[in-house]
Design brief:
Blueprint lengths: L2 E6 L17 E2 L2 E2 H7 L7 E6 L4 H11 L3 E5 L4 H10 L6 E6 L7 H12 L4 E7 L4 E5 L8 E6 L5 E3 L3 E4 H11 L9 H6 L6 E4 L10 H11 L5
Parallel strand pairs: 1-4, 1-6, 4-5, 7-12
Antiparallel strand pairs: 2-3, 6-11, 7-10, 7-11, 8-9
The structure holds cytidine-5'-monophosphate (C5P).
The site of cytidine-5'-monophosphate (C5P) has 19 residues, from α3.
EC number: 4.6.1.12, 2.7.7.60
Keywords: Isoprene biosynthesis, Lyase, Metal-binding, Multifunctional enzyme, Nucleotidyltransferase, Transferase
Family: Belongs to the IspD/TarI cytidylyltransferase family. IspD subfamily.
């Protein structure tokens, strides 16, 4: 297939506090990974699920339940390592989408928007949303109450990055090679492309593509997934 869709699901989920890797936490009767994969049914792409080492068999069963034909590979210690593992399994795909399993409710329309921007010739595409909170920098201290408050950053000039992000496959591979070990600190693939001096195109994100990170996020996702009651 011309497109590979890498779903990174190898995070530990410490902040979610469920005691299992995040993608394997259950919300409304199915794991986060299953919800994420269900949202991708019908996308014209070879799906590569990147999961914690040892969880491959579980992930294969989950993919089958979700109704997607996914290749499953083991991830690494950082998100970037996991993306690199996914890239290694992406075969000869001409373009690559990288998606956080934790953004399990990302709507199909968002995926199509990213693909359309690639079709229109972009080499790198990232969905973005305005920042709603007022953001202030701090002087790093381990304990929030001891942090020295810095300046407020003008939020009108800020955007939150989402996934799926879309790339020309050769460009993303080049970005990962160029970043080398430095990729470990990266939480955003488009940033690695930008570091090459290549253009990154923004498309409108979607609030439903929020990243399930904390217990409160899980609660929000469950409320959205719950069948509507009469
Ligand atoms: O930790 P964070 O929420 O930023 O992770 C974003 C996505 O990256 C999640 O879907 C998570 O499973 C994935 N991840 C990964 N491998 C890691 C760390 C995070 O696949 N080592």
């Amino acid at each position: 297939t011309a497109t590979a869709l890498i779903v990174v699901a190898a995070g530990s989920g410490t902040r979610l506090g469920r005691g299992v890797p995040k993608a394997f936490a259950t919300l409304a009767g199915a794991t986060i990974l299953e919800h994420a994969l269900r949202g991708l049914v019908g996308v014209d792409a070879r799906i590569v699920a990147v999961v914690p080492a040892g969880a491959e068999a579980d992930a294969r069963a989950i993919a089958e339940r979700a109704g997607v034909d996914a290749a499953v590979v083991a991830g690494g210690a950082t998100r970037a390592d996991s993306v690199a593992a996914g890239l290694a399994a992406a075969g000869d795909a001409r373009r690559v989408l990288v998606h956080d399993a934790a953004r399990a409710l990302a709507p199909r329309a968002l995926v199509e928007r990213v693909l359309a921007a690639l079709d229109a010739g972009a080499g790198a595409v990232v969905p973005v949303l305005p920042v709603v909170d007022t953001i202030r920098s701090v002087d790093g201290a381990a304990d929030a109450s001891a942090e020295a408050l810095g300046a407020i950053v003008d939020r009108s000039g800020l955007r939150a990055m989402q996934t799926p992000q879309g790339f020309d496959a050769a460009l993303l591979r080049r970005a990962y090679e160029a970043a080398g070990e430095g990729r470990a600190a990266s939480t955003d693939d488009a940033q690695l492309v930008q570091a090459l001096g290549e253009a990154v195109v923004a498309v409108p994100g979607d609030e439903l593509a929020f990243k399930i990170t904390t217990a409160a996020d899980a609660g929000r996702a469950e409320a959205l997934l719950a069948p509507t009651r009469a």
